[in-house]
Amino acid sequence: MNTVLDIHGLEVAYGKVEALRGLGLTVGEGEIVALLGNNGAGKSTTVSAISGVVRSRAGSVTAFGENITAAPPWSIVERGIVHVPEGRRIFSRLTVHENLQLGGYTVPDTRSIDRRIEQVYDLFPRMAERRAQQGGTLSGGEQQMLAIGRAMVAGPRLIMLDEPSMGLAPLVVAQVMDAIVAINRAGTSVLLIEQNARAALKIAHRGYVIDSGRVTVTGSAAELRADPHVVEAYLGA
């Protein structure tokens, strides 16, 4: 299996607070890899460092065989890595369709943008129904679908999803997770950041648990579901 993403010894600090301390992980081609942990564990900092939103003070990030540790965020998107941030961050005053069009900002071919938007509408029929509706009037689940769809218009080879289930009803969580599986099966690798370990490990191939900026447990999804520490801390008895 080819390696899509390889992080080694990553360190990030906010002032005197160490957010990541020598973190390492990999994502292989065609994989869904879950990154699990409690609030403040360093999950969001990890994806922010990968996408160039925050800068590391040590370590390296390699994507598709190229060192991108110091690359600017727009360049990382052009390389095929797209970050769907926690909280969705859609453009609330723009329509669904306009939000999707902005997902193709770095794509020079307008025909590719149009084709990918239609693929998003196929994946999320509700978005097609609401294409002329302002993003801010959508429900939380619909906004999450829009955020994921907007990322897919960029044509990512790796999509990083930060807490996509946060604040959503269980039925909507299941719909979002099904969409992630469909995106993965269509050829996009996924790094899934989740507090909802149960939902994440249902669809992931492998996973990492981080605590205080360090990887504490790693293994296949089945191994993590059977690990007593993971069960006690994240899955319940």
Which of globular, elongated, flat, extended, rod-shaped describes the shape?
globular
Largest beta-sheet characterization = 6 strands, mixed
CATH fold type: Rossmann fold
List the helices and strands in order. Answer: EEEHEEHEHHHHEHEHEEHH
- Counting DSSP H or I runs of 4 or more residues, the number of helices is 10
CATH H-tier superfamily:
P-loop containing nucleotide triphosphate hydrolases
Could you characterize the architecture of this molecule?
By secondary structure, the chain is an alpha/beta fold. The chain has one domain (3-235): P-loop containing nucleotide triphosphate hydrolases (Rossmann fold), CATH 3.40.50.300. It contains ten helices and ten strands. The protein has helices spanning 43-50, 73-78, 96-102, 110-123, 125-129, 140-153, 170-185, 197-203, 221-226, 228-235, and strands at 3-14, 17-28, 32-36, 58-63, 66-67, 81-84, 158-162, 189-194, 206-211, 214-220. The strands form two sheets. Strands 6-7-8-3-9-10 form a six-stranded mixed sheet, with helices on both faces. It has a four-stranded antiparallel sheet with strand order 2-1-4-5, with helices on one face. β9 (206-211) and β10 form a beta hairpin. The chain is globular. The chain starts with a strand and ends with a helix. The mean pLDDT is 94.
